[in-house]
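Recap from last week: sequence in, structure out.
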Amino acid sequence: GRKIELGEHHAALQRQRDKLRDSHERAKLAKRRYIVEPVFGWIKQQLGFRRHAVFGLEGAQTEWSLIAAVYNLRYLDPVGNGYGTFGNKSRERIDHFRASFRVAEFHFRQRV
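Predicted structure tokens:
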């Protein structure tokens, strides 16, 4: 007779299928489209980040922290004209963040 083997992720796949059958769970999963996915899309498209450039968990965590910082710092300068919507009061703070990011990026690139 024929032999059917289940993959190692079969249980997880079955749980996901069960979630999609339940309308309440399907609604919860649909929210992810508006909450999480745009962040990953921006990171992939705008930053061009597709894979980690370092080895090991510590390096990957450091790299991801830098990417998250870039994503969060863009709110300081949403217009892209230098000082965003915070006005000149925040000029020194924003300049400090930019300088800190450049230093962090330099050190990160030295490790790669």
